[in-house]
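Exercise 7b. Backbone tokens:
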């Protein structure tokens, strides 16, 4: 893209950040307001774009400004987290919301700007949805789940505003796609790169290296289950695996079943305690997130563990299929839209799904995965080759970009390409 088409937000607040996101809520709000200040005060007046596309609560004030100016705006909801801040603080950070405050969503119905300025917080995520001309979630099923009020943890304003957009025909679900660098044929983190055709040999070599690196039993025939997501009990369902971890490993003790965690999170220490108590040192490996090890684990593992309570989209299950590592997952949100339960006889499916969110459901899905693992090598090879080929063709940025272009054209009522 030509440089003149890129307009960067510059602010001193960005210079002191070592990472994109902070571990401190107030700092994240400060960064988000600094970015929005640049967009609202400088970039939009200079560029006057045909359309504005915003993402998550960090850009939640911009759609109100866009609506006031008559610029079509798409707002994408990636997750359900939001923040709230009074307009007095927003003003203090350099954003004059007086011209578009009526398009913001407040904690309670405002009677006037002055009355709401100090004591009626603005909900950033709900504001983005409320003011945007069109809204999308990052999977069709997660949108349906919110509209049908299937999740009791979704805050009422989010559910209400998404439902309003849905009823108006202004809400859709568009799946994300994995980073294209996650490709076993070109991934530099792998000891041997491979394609769908030679995945058996490629995965075995990577399995040997990962087992050696993590101090596991070095057995090329050992089934490996890989946990790729943060260890978060609110969303990711790690407590389900904790309840059955020893049961799973001990049930397949003679098979040397191994479980690998490459993830940070509050529940990591709990898994370490389980492994220590049951002396599972060479069968369960737990390490902090490291992208190179995670890439190797996708290639080395046979299965991906994703027992998520809810999943707005999810990327590991898509990445897993392209590496020939099949998801074992809860049938929810974006997982439902990307994974079909295996049916070898019908030559259909790409993973193992459970519908009841509890440890028994997860255990059942793991047993289903192991039944697949025990199939004749020729049968497994054919199925995994099919899954890898289909995954690469389906889960990619070209498909996702086309969906967004179609939506842009619908909003602008004219073709773009």
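Sequence design result:
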């Amino acid at each position: 893209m030509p440089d003149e088409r890129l307009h960067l937000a510059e602010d001193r607040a960005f210079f002191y950040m070592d990472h994109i996101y902070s571990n401190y809520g107030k700092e994240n709000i400060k960064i988000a307001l600094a970015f929005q200040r640049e967009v609202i005060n400088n970039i939009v007046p200079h560029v006057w774009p045909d359309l504005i596309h915003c993402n998550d609560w960090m850009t939640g004030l911009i759609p109100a400004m866009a609506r006031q100016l008559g610029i079509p705006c798409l707002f994408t909801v990636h997750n359900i987290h939001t923040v709230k801040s009074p307009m007095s603080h927003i003003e203090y950070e350099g954003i004059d919301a007086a011209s578009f405050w009526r398009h913001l969503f407040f904690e309670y119905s405002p009677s006037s700007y002055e009355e709401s300025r100090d004591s009626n917080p603005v909900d950033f995520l709900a504001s983005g949805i409320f003011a945007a001309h069109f809204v999308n979630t990052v999977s069709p099923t997660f949108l349906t789940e919110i509209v049908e009020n299937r999740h009791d943890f979704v805050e009422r304003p989010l559910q209400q505003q998404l439902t309003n957009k849905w009823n108006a025909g202004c809400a859709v679900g568009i799946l994300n796609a994995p980073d294209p660098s996650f490709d076993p044929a070109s991934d530099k983190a792998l000891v041997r790169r491979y394609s769908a055709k030679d995945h058996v040999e490629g995965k075995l070599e990577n399995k040997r290296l990962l087992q050696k690196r993590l101090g596991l039993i070095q057995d090329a025939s050992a089934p490996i289950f890989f946990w790729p997501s943060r260890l978060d009990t609110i969303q990711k369902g790690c407590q389900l695996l904790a309840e059955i971890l020893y049961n799973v490993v001990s049930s397949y003790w003679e098979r040397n079943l191994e479980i690998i965690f490459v993830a940070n999170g509050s529940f990591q220490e709990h898994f370490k305690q389980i492994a220590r108590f049951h002396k599972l040192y060479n069968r369960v490996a737990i390490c902090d997130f490291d992208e190179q090890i995670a890439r190797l684990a996708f290639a080395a593992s046979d299965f991906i563990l994703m027992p998520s309570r809810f999943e707005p989209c999810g990327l590991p299950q898509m990445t897993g299929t392209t590496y020939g590592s099949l998801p074992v997952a809860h049938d929810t949100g974006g997982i439902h839209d990307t994974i079909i339960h295996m049916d070898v006889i019908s030559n259909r499916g790409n993973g193992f799904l459970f519908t009841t969110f509890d440890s028994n459901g997860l255990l059942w899905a793991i047993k289903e995965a192991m039944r697949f693992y025990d199939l004749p090598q020729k049968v497994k090879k054919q199925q995994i080759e099919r899954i890898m080929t289909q995954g690469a063709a389906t889960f990619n940025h070209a498909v996702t970009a086309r969906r967004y272009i179609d939506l842009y054209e619908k909003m602008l009522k004219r073709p773009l390409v």
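Instructor comment: The chain has two domains: 8-177+399-412, 198-395. The two ends are 15 Å apart (CA to CA).
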